[in-house]
Fold these 2 entries.
Entry 1:
Amino acid sequence: MSDQKKISYASVAISSAAASCSETHNAILHVPAGDGPFPLLVYLHGGFWKPEWTREATGSAAFLATFTSPPAEVAAASPLGPVATLSVEYARVAQDDPANSEGGGGFPGTQLDVLAAVNEVASLHRAGGEDGTAGAAAARLDLGSVFLAGHSAGGQMALWLGLLSALPAQVRRAAIGEVVGRSDGGPALAEVVAAGVDPAISVAGVLAIAPVCDLVSAAQEGLSDFHDAVPNLLWRFGHTAKEPAAPGAGLQHEAAAAACPVSLLRRLPPLAAAPRVLLVHGDRDTDVPPSQSLAFAAAAWGAPGDHATSLLLARESDHLEPVGILVTDDGSPRVARYRRLQAAMRHFVAAGVAARCHGMPPPEEAEARLSPLCCTSLEEARGFCAAATPHACAAATVAAIEAAAAGGADDGAAETLAALNRPADMARGLLRWFSWVGREPGMAVAAWVSQHMS
């Protein structure tokens, strides 16, 4: 029989308020029946690091079925042997008052949670145990064939962890450790970063779905519904609990680079190789634009090192479709698109497993199934992104408020304002975004914010 175990991991204590919490510091390990060893796919759900978006609320189990129990037509189109999965819950960030986030949420705590969860599996694997225990289940894993997968904010963390595993210790310390060591966690966090991923674990690939790859540009654009998700993630380095920081204050911009997959990719030494990466993004994603994936692909393809990065840009797909959220088996085009994406993601994992099993590059058969689905050039990818549906950003909200104040709001601006069903949250978010970009709001926006601040 297969084993499914809920395991706990110890959070890195950033403060007395950041003690491990059973609701946030746990993961569900599923290991197929049989002796193994089985490759492991680690899944990190999305939700812009917000508390309401939990593992259950984001449909993590349904997505993981792509690898454990896919529809018959997907399994037939994309052969893949049994795969174990680890669905990780992690501390997230209270939006109104980030400093009161439960379980130490926010960078670096949130990202180090994911590191701790993966390393806990390695510890269980070494310890083993009697039948029926988590140790016995973990002992049947192939830790040399670990895949990291994540959606949206989870994609950021999957890429971050994958790059952490590839960076030499001295670069980890310089690129990440020196920054996080100046947070309230102190030098101890720098040592956690320098230690990195357990040496028993080898990251065979990263599957990043609609990922936030470039935190620097995501903060600058004001991605997320209230435009402040990245500043909130980085609250330890800048703004205080309920008031934004003065423009340029703190270390937020340095922290953004330390948490940013694109920035870390550029820190890899010339002869170092990043893990294999598959980026999946839809052209109707209005939450995280496909330009985020393009930024990572462009950096990988232009780097001196050997970075095997593939970019799959899915036409007609929005932010949720690539992980099956709101996809029902009704025979609609949406279902057909998702089935194709499921097969592509299985091709990617199958190629990595084949490379591990045979000790050589993935066989042509596995690559041949995936390659035709992916972009072949930067020019093709840039054209796709240029034609994508406009995404939500702070500039669009600001423009809508200003147009409404001037009495000239068009249909698009009116629609933007009509969607603001939580104006107090938007007012807070706009203040934090203006703080990040070092600007003062104009008169119309300042008046709107003042009117709606709670």
Note: Residues 3-213+260-386 form a domain with the Rossmann fold fold (CATH 3.40.50.1820).
Entry 2:
Amino acid sequence: MAILWHALVAGLAALAGRAMASPTSSAPAPFASPSSSTSPSTSPLKACNNSPTLCERAYNWVTFMGAHDSAFLRDASTGHSLAGNQYQNATASLDGGIRLLQAQVHKQEGQLRLCHTLCNLLDAGSLQDWLAAIHAWMEQNPREVVTLLLVNSDSASAADFDAVFRSSGISKLGYMPPALGAGDWTTLGDMVDRGTRLVSFVTNIEPLSTAPYLVPEFDRVFETPFTVTDIAGFNCTVDRPARLAGGGGTAAVHKGMLGLVNHFKDITISESIAVPDTDTLGVVNSDDAAETGALGTHLAQCAREWGGRRPSFALVDFWDVGRTVQVADAMNGISDASGRKAPAGGSAADGSKVSMGAGINGDVGRNVKGAMVVFLAMVLML
């Protein structure tokens, strides 16, 4: 099962040491934006999600670039864990233009925590603290619409999530979408003006009348396959929810569902163990619209296969390697983005410089086999 390997990965990560960073490299030139109707803004305060153009656009007609497993970092705080999927934390990602943050949530001793499969393997802290940091960022950036996607691994109740959202202060920004099939969502500008600019999708919950801002993910969103180990393996088939699995996205979008493209590649270490593949990030996170395995190619393919409807969301690993945010700009047809901040070691603002992580075939790879033996021995002793 695709999720199970993360437990082994996290254990390996703790034993394998650290991932070395290679020198920076230049990103390829961006592919042409479908349209650019507005000149660069002279007043970032009038922008929505870094662009004046997006203020008049309904939420369901915007493509949001997202950080997959955004809470699980490959940095000094985790010993450069091989299980980490991102180099930048949530607020740095938001600074750089990411507007979708995905994370796994577990219920540990009555508390909702951000854990990569198991809390005793990789624990990124409490959900409340994470939400509080995002809330603080949103208060400092009052014209930004942010989406959260929380994988509810232990099937905690909507009431459990509501309590944490309220304690963090972020619930007051929650947005309640229109009924499925009832037409377009609110424009980003209206969401900003009304102060309801946080969209929260959660898996494995039932709707809660007292917390209508907590949206069961698969009532409104469909996803493409999320386990890809071949760079030519990205496709646009509906993988989840189960009732739509195996079908095309066109019918789903016609029903008002929002399409999410999973675009991250793993590398297999053994039959049952895989980790994020950093060796191919230069291609996988590329804005090229013609290269096999590139993010730009994948999103353009899905737009074609879904009857011309652009994906609403895309999830990537190590978003600051490559021009991932610029791919969303191209999908949205904007060239007037402003106000983004480049993360340390990268350049999300213009994509001209990126920091490349060492791949599993590099320095880290030389430590993996020994770490794997030790880790598997530990597992057998449990």
Note: The mean pLDDT is 84.
